[in-house]
Design a protein that fits this description.
- By secondary structure, this protein is of the alpha+beta class.
- It has 2 domains: 3-106, 2-Layer Sandwich (Alpha-Beta Plaits), CATH 3.30.70; 109-243, Pseudouridine synthase I, catalytic domain, C-terminal subdomain (Alpha-Beta Plaits), CATH 3.30.70.660.
- It is 23% helix and 29% strand.
- It has 5 helices and 10 strands.
- It has helices spanning 27-39, 72-85, 140-147, 198-211, 216-225, and strands at residues 3-10, 46-47, 56-65, 90-98, 108-118, 132-133, 152-155, 170-181, 184-191, 240-247.
- Strands 1, 2, 3, 4, 5, 6, 7, 8, 9 and 10 form a 10-stranded mixed sheet that branches.
- α3 (140-147) packs across α4 and α3 runs parallel beside α5.
- It is globular, with a radius of gyration of 19 Å.
- The protein starts with a strand and ends in an 8-residue tail after the last strand.
- The mean pLDDT is 95.
Length: 255
């Protein structure tokens, strides 16, 4: 059975997350339904990351197995046509046939997330549900300094949801950078993999550093506590985007 990699973009506002759930509208289910409509095949879509309800993606990656070969552009076009007809806020931005050993989740070598904060007093209009509005002035430099306390290999229990199914709370955070451009604060996080709610938990904690109520030492102490109760308030899903997934040497070809 030929395997296809799908690169995906979606506005997660209307979805109960990525993973298929009975009685809920999810990104995975929407794409599987589009595949069924286009090909007549019931498949299981495998994604690189299980984004939560309300979380967006600019570069999610998934793969599917079909019984017959499709030209990549025709597959992309057919899926997008059915997604659009269904009123879904999901698009397939690229499709290609890949080798059987490619797995969107387990072949990934890094995942990159962006969290956007709009730091102003005026309410959001165009970016409502696409960013976190924080009205109190934040010091992005202080947030960045505090963020560096979290970079490296650590036990991230403090920043892990109680619902997390990962076997270990130990992860290596390769990057956690905070920058400001006007009213927009961007937090970029990179790692091979993340715990459930890890990025949003870290962002909520960094907000406290930006407000001046926590120091970098306080963030470090929260990390070392390995206690969920030591975490700051979890940031809302609105500002979180899965922006890119990396693979060793790119994606293995089917040739």
């Amino acid at each position: 059975m030929p395997r296809y990699r799908l690169d995906l973009e979606y506005d997660g506002t209307a979805y109960a997350g990525w993973q298929r759930q009975a009685g809920h509208h999810t990104v995975q289910a929407a794409i599987e339904q589009a595949v069924l409509a286009a090909s007549g095949e019931q498949i299981t879509l495998r994604g690189a990351g299980r984004t939560d309800a309300g979380v967006h993606a600019l570069g999610q990656v998934a793969h599917i197995d079909l019984s017959r070969e499709w030209a990549a552009n025709k597959l992309m076009g057919a899926l997008n046509a059915h997604l659009e007809q269904g009123g879904e806020t999901v698009a397939v931005t690229a499709a290609r046939q890949v080798a059987d050993e490619f797995d969107a989740r387990f072949s990934a070598t890094a995942r990159h997330y962006l969290y956007r904060i709009v730091n102003r007093r005026a309410p959001l209009t165009l970016e409502k549900r696409c960013a976190w509005l924080v009205k109190r002035r934040l010091d992005a430099g202080a947030m960045h300094a505090a963020a560096q306390m979290l970079v490296g290999k650590h036990d991230f229990t403090t920043f892990r949801s109680v619902q997390c199914q990962s076997k270990s709370p130990v992860k290596t955070l390769d990057r956690l950078d905070v920058t400001r451009d006007g009213d927009v604060i961007e937090i970029r996080a990179s790692a091979r993999s993340f715990l459930h709610n890890q990025v949003r938990s870290m962002v909520g904690t960094l907000r406290k550093a930006g407000e001046g109520t926590w120091t970098p030492a306080d963030v470090r102490a929260a990390l070392e506590a390995a206690d969920r109760a030591a975490c700051g308030p979890v940031a809302p899903p609105d500002g979180l985007y899965l922006v890119r997934v990396d693979y060793e040497g790119g994606t293995p070809s089917s040739d």
